[in-house]
Amino acid sequence: MKTKIFLNLAVKDLNRAVSFYNGLGFSTNPKFTNEKGACLVIDENIFVMILAEEFYQTFTKKQICDSTTTSEAIIAISVDTREQVDEMMEKAIKSGGTDYNQTNDYGWMYQRTFLDVDGHHWEVFFMDENQIPENI
């Protein structure tokens, strides 16, 4: 069995978060979705579990951070082209996300950043591994 990644994120409004991620083009897996949380499919082995804060809290003894003011993680996702980076950014903004940082274009890597509707930090990038300089 291939390793699968399930990224778990606390959200304030589950329906709003589902709409945001569906707007990015991520489908919802109904098998792992109910009124407490939803499973969004990024790829066949990569998933985002968005969990209502009350339900998320049952998995940890730690306090849930306010992701609108505190950095909990930077989630980076690669795409196949520079154009797809821009397309994902357009979808994120149209779905209620925020364009968070300046665009970085290193020639061999093109990167843009958005915050989702709960303030989670996402970076979308295209990287041409054949063009990576020897001394980064």
UniProtKB/TrEMBL annotation:
InterPro entries: Glyas_Bleomycin-R_OHBP_Dase, Glyas_Fos-R_dOase_dom
SUPFAM superfamilies attached to this UniProt entry: Glyoxalase/Bleomycin resistance protein/Dihydroxybiphenyl dioxygenase
Annotated ranges, domain Glyoxalase/fosfomycin resistance/dioxygenase: 8-124
PANTHER family assigned to the protein according to its UniProt record, in alphabetical order: BLR2408 PROTEIN, BLR2520 PROTEIN
Protein name: Glyoxalase/fosfomycin resistance/dioxygenase domain-containing protein
